């Protein structure tokens, strides 16, 4: 409220200037300085087309003559122009892309001797519990708990769902060891 009173006093006392002269402390505040009532918008002249590289000088007479000579060439001569320029400018020759792997399905049916089938050795095996003796159920549950890290209830539920996969993605040596332990406990397990 106090600043508005000071502002009114300054406006009334200094009527000869267009804008009032404000004390030093009020000059930094933009809301106290009156603005032009009719600001004119800035008009920009846009080019007819956009050129990202900016204005360029017009082509020289030599370039214009060359362009007219190129356009007057026959179609056979135009086909020779590209390789001639490539050789003259020492550009690398383009290599053809090999298409050996693209039609492998079609080639396999027509020429099976070309496609050598390699047998892939299986490295990860699954151990599956097929069956167990009813008298040896507790021993089998204890063995299942040792290599699956399950609790007693979870191991019992797993064994009762026979046939069930006990362990997946193990090596051949580990799978044979598990099968032997289950066989010694009274169960039958297989490796898949």
Brief write-up:
With 192 residues, the protein is an alpha+beta fold.
Order of helices and strands: HHHHEHHEHE
Tell me the quaternary state: single chain
Principal-axes shape call? elongated
| Overall mean pLDDT | 76
Cα(first) to Cα(last) distance is: 90 Å
Widest sheet: strand ordering:
2-1-3
The profile of the biggest β sheet is:
3 strands, antiparallel
Q: Which structural class is indicated by helix and strand composition?
A: alpha+beta
Number of helices: 7
Radius of gyration: 45 Å
Q: DSSP strand (E) fraction? A: 5-15%
What's the number of extended β-strand segments? 3
Low-confidence stretches: none
Helix content: 40-55%
Q: What topology emerges from the helices and strands here?
A:
Blueprint: H1 2-13, H2 61-71, H3 75-88, H4 104-110, E1 125-132, H5 137-148, H6 152-160, E2 164-170, H7 172-185, E3 187-191
Antiparallel strand pairs: 1-2, 1-3
Helix pairs in contact: 5-6, 5-7
Structural features, described:
With 192 residues, the protein is of the alpha+beta class. The protein has helices at residues 2-13, 61-71, 75-88, 104-110, 137-148, 152-160, 172-185, and strands at 125-132, 164-170, 187-191. 9% of the residues are buried. The model has no long low-confidence stretch (mean pLDDT 76).
What descriptive keywords fit this protein?
192 residues, alpha+beta, 3-stranded antiparallel sheet, 3 strands, elongated
